[in-house]
Amino acid sequence: MTNIKKITTPLTDEVVKGLKAGDQVSISGVIYTARDAAHKLLIEAIQAGEELPVDFNNQIIYYAGPTPAKPGKVIGSCGPTTSGRMDAYSPLMMEQGLKGMIGKGPRSKEVVEAMIANHVVYFAAIGGAAALIADSVKEAEVVAFDELGPEAIRRLVVEDYPCIVAIDSEGHNLYELGVQQYKIVD
Question: Which InterPro entries match (predicted)?
Fold first, then answer.
């Protein structure tokens, strides 16, 4: 049986440092959704010296734009967005105290270097399982940029949100380790 690490938000350096690439994780607590349009507005606010609409210190951003909730549901489908679209914004967000990111796909060298410098972890969510992931969301509310519709920043309360540590705070990268492990040698 696989050992699943249960963690709660907000994240501490101790928890982040204890997570290793390949770990299966179950997250409970508050996470925030934000995609490229919201990230662009956040970075503009930081660069203008404005206060952010959310305190991201020790928090997790989930790269997702949920669909509207069906009757009786808290949220609609809530699958991950390709993380590379946020790479230009991620290092500055980490400097604001962000401790975790959830998405799909590999990250740039600059993002991994910023993760190491700021003790941040990157989780991979399961693409194609958006409806299943939505079941772990117990509460959802728009907290910033409502005008962006699905790309607005939402505060989600999750319970046992499933994901995998794709890149840990030491830079160990499952996207690279996996390729090396299964590489065919002549």
Answer: Fe-S_hydro-lyase_TtdB-typ_cat, Fe-S_hydroAse_TtdB_cat_sf
